Amino acid sequence: MTERRRFPREARLRRSDEIRGVMRRGRRTARGPLQAFVAPAGAERARVAVVVPRHGRTAVQRNRLKRRLREILRLRWLPGAPPRDVVLRAGPRAYGRSFAELERSVLRCLSDTDS
């Protein structure tokens, strides 16, 4: 049986009040088509939420973008991430980006919040 690789439940910000709180009190950084809001952790590990507004797109397009962003976070950022809460919000230009371009934008946006 193959191993299932999922975005860990304990690494997710799930409640809308938590997400709004991070966006309200967190430090905002924008890079390319993405914005990151970073706040001190409400848990012992990093927790993330991905917000993809409609921007006139179909559900298929929005879900594909969300899956790509979550996968980038799961594979490239979460393994060494410091304990903090992050909300990653996509802008309309994110829909036209390739996986590699999104990956660069996500990592650049989150590395700017380290300082």
Descriptive account of the structure:
The model has no long low-confidence stretch (mean pLDDT about 90). With about 120 residues, the protein is α+β, with helices and mostly antiparallel strands. The protein is about 35% helix and about 20% strand. It starts with 15 loop residues before the first helix and ends with a helix. The chain contains 3 helices and 4 strands, in the order αβββαβα.
Give me the secondary-structure topology.
Elements lengths: L15 H10 L1 E5 L2 E7 L6 E5 L7 H19 L6 E7 L8 H14 L3
Short description:
With 115 residues, this protein is α+β, with helices and mostly antiparallel strands. It has three helices and four strands, in the order H-E-E-E-H-E-H.
Question: Any key phrases for this structure?
Answer:
115 residues; single chain; 3 helices; alpha+beta; four-stranded mixed sheet; globular
Share of β-strand residues: 15-25%
Main sheet?
4 strands, mixed
Question: Which series of helices and strands comes N to C?
Answer: HEEEHEH
Count up the helices: 3
